[in-house]
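Subject: sequence -> structure tokens, single chain

Hey, anyone have a minute? Need the predicted structure for the following. Not urgent.
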Amino acid sequence: MDWHGVPSLQALRGLEAVARLGSYTAAAAELNVTHAAVSQSVRKLEAHFGVALIQRTPDGMAPTHDAIALCAALTDGFGRIAGAARDMATRNSTRPLRVSLTPSLAASWIMPRMGRFWTRHPEVELELLPSNRVVDLSRDGFDMAIRQGKGDWPGVESEWLMGSVHVVVAGPEAPAVGPLTDLSPLSTWPWLLGPYRQAEIDWARAHGLDLDRVRATEFDDNAMLLQALRGSDRVAILPYPVVSDDLARGSLIDLFEDTETDYGYFVVTRPGHRPETLRKFVRWLRAEAA
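Reply:
Had a minute. Here:
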């Protein structure tokens, strides 16, 4: 590998941290150096490359147009280094398997089934960390994530777990409604809407309903939405795995659902990272989703 022309890695770390965190102060705190040291590193890099690399914006510090690709590569590269070093340091130790997943999937699908996993694999420690944030597996120290989408995320390995067709569900106090061929009869009903709902908006519009025009209460996450929906007369669109147990118990009513979709839940891992504990957990997930 030819390192000729590559500036100091310490300076590059400073640049990456400022671009990612949007602040010289936050970058200095993360790197355990002074604000002045980070600022000097960025100035040296700007002198080396002959262009401005960081600019002030209303939202804080951000990479300039010339530096966007460099900063993205640095975040990816340093994240991979940190992940590999962490794996090496813990290769012979017993540590919890760190898993990122959405709060709604954790509360409605994973946790009700965890007793079976603990019975089968009492030797595997899990650290389930629900969040709606899409984490960087390497940089943030996660072994895997369960993500909803099409499985086309860059820099990771994705394995289909189960489909996530859209389902329109109502609380048990909702009025009776006959079989629906589209969603237009629900335009006057009170709705509950969760975060990251562009896919739901597009899907509803394709089936005759404009969610921007309905009377709705909004929630920051689907787990809270689901709690509110149970025992109410409201209606919502949710992924089938999140509501499957409620539908089986009769605590929610299935009004309308997709027949097929290319959206699903995926097991997402770092390339080449498959410790035995991870393989055991993924095998169990496959069996539960089958």
